[in-house]
Amino acid sequence: MNKGIYPDWDHFIETKQSPYFNSRPEFPMLNEDTPTFMGVEKGNSINDIKGADAVIIGAPYVATSGEEYMGVSKYEWIAAPKRVRQQSIRYRSGYIQDFDLDLFDKLNIIDYGDADIPLEVMENQSAENILKAQQAVEKKVSEVLSVNAVPIVIGQNSPCGSYAIAKPIAESTNGPVGCISLDTHWDAETVDFLTNDPRIAGSESWKHKMYEFHENMHPRNLVEIGERGMLEDKEIIRNYLKQGTRFISSWELRTSLGIDGLIKELDRAYQGTKSVYVHFDMDVIGGAGPAPGDILGEASEPIGLTDYEVIRIAHEIGKKGLGGLSFICIPPGSPLVYRCIVYVIMYLLAGIALEK
């Protein structure tokens, strides 16, 4: 493997016998180069996911009409669901030594494959095509919710990796829904910049649209974590704060609050709510995670959260419970970053298992 080039599936197969690649001898495959997440069982229909505690869904979508997103090839971004699954297979089992817990003894986790996102949306980002892509993710998420499991969506851009998860959670919940969001950007502009269509909950607008479209979601139950610096419109932020949002910048986290103080503040999303939607935009790690910040292209910003902080937050959320989890903006091209996503998912599920 050449340094700087992401390994293909043949490389994974060739290195299975390495002492640092503890792959199971056999595992289900979603296609010729994509194993299931952590080698769990594959679900092909809603009947297959009945009885699951959590269900993995891929949402390979990128919000660009060109060849790049944030200065990085769109094909690098869109590979995230596959690459997270590939990296997950390097782990021996569901045994997490930090907690002396074999997760698969406690929880039934199923990989439901990728949402059936139309290929044409990758070349033609019309509002109609974007809505079709969003609906493909919604369908799978709704099916998971209907069997009382937690959907975990590995996506890359909005709306397919954010609003498409929030929407079915809001629609299926009889009562208020809170939100915990980790991000570098608020994504709270009033209109999607790519289409200028008011129906689209896009990369800069999905959070605004979530509150615009769903009466049972309100900013007073939003805990927003990780934004910093000079990126945002002050009136937008001040309006959220006025409505009761708990905003924890990475500056506050590091200078006064600390990780334990942040964990206590997560309760804001649960006060008076029936469910909580959790969203991890992984550009929040900036350069403080397991890879240089520049890997994110134009999405890179200083004072990012560390990989430990993100994983710890996920674990504590799992202990509190959640309606669903989604990822976008997973830094592309680094095997270690994809392993970080595996940890986020597994440590969150460990939190669920420890409280079950």
Give the arrangement of secondary structure elements.
Elements: H1 9-14, E1 29-31, E2 34-35, E3 41-42, E4 54-59, E5 68-69, E6 72-73, H2 74-78, H3 80-88, E7 95-96, E8 101-102, H4 103-106, E9 109-114, H5 127-146, E10 150-155, H6 163-172, E11 177-182, H7 206-213, E12 217-225, H8 234-242, E13 246-248, H9 250-265, E14 275-281, H10 307-320, E15 324-328, H11 335-355
Parallel strand pairs: 3-9, 4-9, 4-10, 10-15, 11-12, 11-14, 12-13, 14-15
Antiparallel strand pairs: 1-2, 5-6, 7-8
The profile of the biggest β sheet is: 9 strands, parallel
For the record, what is the CATH homologous superfamily label?
Ureohydrolase domain
- Look at the helices and sheets and give the structural class: alpha/beta
Q: Quote the CATH topology.
A: Arginase, Chain A
Brief write-up:
The protein has 11 helices and 15 strands. The mean pLDDT is 93.
Describe this structure as you would to a colleague:
The chain is 34% helix and 18% strand. It has 356 residues and is an alpha/beta fold. It has one domain: Arginase, Chain A, CATH 3.40.800.10. Strands 3-9-4-10-15-14-11-12-13 form a 9-stranded parallel sheet. α3 crosses α11, α5 crosses α6 and α10 packs parallel to α11.
Provide key terms for this protein.
alpha/beta; 9-stranded parallel beta sheet; 11 helices; two-stranded antiparallel sheet; 356 residues
